[in-house]
Amino acid sequence: MDPRTRPYRSVLYIPGSKPRALDKARQLPVDAVIFDLEDAVSPEEKENARATLAEALAAGGYGARMKIVRINGLDTDWGRADAAAAAQMDCDAVLLPKVDSPADLDALAEITGDMPLWAMMETPRGMLNAPAIAAHPRLQGMVMGTNDLAKELQCRYRADRLPMMAGLGLCLLAAKAEGVVIVDGVYNAFKDAEGLAAECEQGRDMGFDGKTLIHPAQVEIANAAFAPSEAEIDLAQRQIAAFEAAEAEGQGVAVVDGKIVENLHVATAREILAKADAIAALSE
Q1: Are 129 and 46 part of one and the same domain?
Q2: Which residue range forms the structural domain that includes residue 243?
Q3: 68 with 130, same domain?
Q4: What predicted TM-score, i.e. pTM, was given to this entire model?
Q5: One digit per residue, pLDDT tens: the chain, 284 residues?
Q6: Kind of pairing between the strands at 181-184 and 210-213
Q7: Is residue 226 within 8 Å of residue 200, measured between CB atoms?
Q8: Rounded-to-10 torsion of CA 92, 98, 101, 105
């Protein structure tokens, strides 16, 4: 499915070491799951988590949800074994943390073969190399790691995320240029619904495809924020109808709500309707 229309509104991190959480994810209304072998798993659980996750994925039951396995970095004691194991799992992609350059993805691809790759974008070097990373032939998605990025930048927390805007923007431009998926970083205060909604709205306004989440309580807000609204769907339908009517009369533009509608607006309108249809199909 076209990444511009396939929903990635909610991308929930699930620890690969916890069978109950792995089972619960089968019932959650999320568009994608990141099955985590990295930060969410303690060192003493790393090897067991690999087996636990492989068993859960083999059992199935995740439906149309995108299944992404985040491994440990290849420079750690567990990364290469994680990569080899993930390549044999029933998943859709492997997510590599702290990608600095395309060479990191090359090293992973040597282990995972034809498996689609995703990249965690969470280092200053990764921000500067975002265009080359996004252009990697195996890459299908980018995930903003805003906690690690903030640590590396030594920036202060601000609700408007101004200190991280340069990095967020560089990655967005790179992803859109190459047509790969890009999802926003996590919102840590999982009980702060108002703050989450505001950050989701900001991310959607910027052009992110969705939001990574750390708690099931955040799913509903993200799903609402990154889905086309009823007003957007209505406008898209009216723009398409008006443009088609104008074309039938030999005109190149139409007017809707006092605004010009051209080919580019119609293309966006069709994407909005396609995404709404895809969301409806996932919900079923």
Answers
A1: yes
A2: 230-283
A3: yes
A4: 0.94
A5: 566 678 999 999 999 999 999 999 999 999 999 999 999 999 999 999 999 999 999 999 999 999 999 999 999 999 999 999 999 999 999 999 999 999 999 999 999 999 999 999 999 999 999 999 999 999 999 999 999 999 999 999 999 999 999 999 999 999 999 999 999 999 999 999 999 999 999 999 999 999 999 999 999 999 999 999 999 999 999 999 999 999 999 999 999 999 999 999 999 999 999 999 999 988 87
A6: parallel
A7: yes
A8: -30
- 3-class SS string, the chain: CCCCCCCCCEEEEEECCCHHHHHHCCCCCCCEEEEECCCCCCHHHHHHHHHHHHHHHHHCCCCCCEEEEECCCCCCCCHHHHHHHHCCCCCCEEEECCCCCHHHHHHHHHHHCCCCEEEEECCHHHHHCHHHHHCCCCEEEEEECHHHHHHHHCCCCCCCCHHHHHHHHHHHHHHHHHCCEEEECCCCCCCCHHHHHHHHHHHHHHCCCEEEECCHHHHHHHHHHCCCCHHHHHHHHHHHHHHHHHHHCCCCCEEECCEEECHHHHHHHHHHHHHHHHHHHHHC
Domain count, the chain: 2
- Among 195, 225, 255, identify where a domain stops: 225
Per the structure block, which two tokens stand in for 209?
């495809």
Q: Looking at the structure, tell me whether residues 134 and 156 fall in a common domain.
A: yes
- The domain boundary residue, chosen from 225, 241, 257: 225
Instruction: Retrieve residue 205's tokens.
Output: 């306004």
What does residue 265 show for φ and ψ, rounded to 5 degrees? -70, -35
Q: What residues have CB less than 8 Å from 148, skipping those under 6 apart?
A: 98, 120, 122, 123
